Automatic annotation (TrEMBL):
It comes from Providencia stuartii. Signal peptide: none annotated. This is Contractile injection system protein, VgrG/Pvc8 family.
């Protein structure tokens, strides 16, 4: 498989648990998913004409989507072909919607567990999605913000921007 230098860097960073993002002309790295926490709070106010602050969400749509609740990854070690390299991760009570990947990209058990966990988190990342209209210019993909004053209490939580 041929990949660009950027695709190679993205794959390597993913496998090692490194997040990276750009701000202006600088690139930042973090090994923690909360690295882009910016302390941004959005106030939910559906009447856009009554609010003059620059951190207001005027619409909020929420959706839950069906995602795999179990991941099974299997790989082969060519030095020891009979050694069973298989790892799995699942949500509590999972196993109804499984994904099986026969090429897990690991050659040792120690590598397999964190890679399987990261891949499972990636597959589950779209299970809870919010969509907002806001006037906050500080938001960009990767930033984490807190929604406040929504009438449905579970929505008043921390959210991470995935698209703008």
């Amino acid at each position: 498989k041929r990949e660009s230098a950027y695709d190679f860097w993205c794959r390597l960073a993913f496998e090692e648990g490194i997040n990276f993002w750009f701000e202006e002309d600088q690139m930042f790295y973090s090994d923690e998913h909360m690295g882009m926490t910016a302390g941004i709070s959005l106030t939910y106010n559906p009447q856009a004409n009554t609010d003059i602050t620059d951190s207001t969400a005027t619409t909020w749509q929420y959706g839950e989507y069906l995602c795999p609740d179990q991941l099974i990854q299997k790989d082969n070690n060519y030095v020891r072909p009979s050694y069973p390299l298989m790892h799995q991760d699942q949500q509590a009570g999972g196993g109804q919607h499984s994904v099986f990947e026969s090429y897990g990209r690991f050659q040792l058990d120690a590598e397999g567990e964190p890679l399987t966990k990261a891949r499972f988190e990636q597959l589950r990342s779209g299970s809870r999605v919010g969509n907002a209209t806001t006037n906050c210019f500080a938001l960009r993909p990767g930033k984490i913000f807190t929604l406040q004053n929504h009438p449905h209490a579970p929505m008043n939580d921390s959210w991470q921007v995935i698209t703008v």
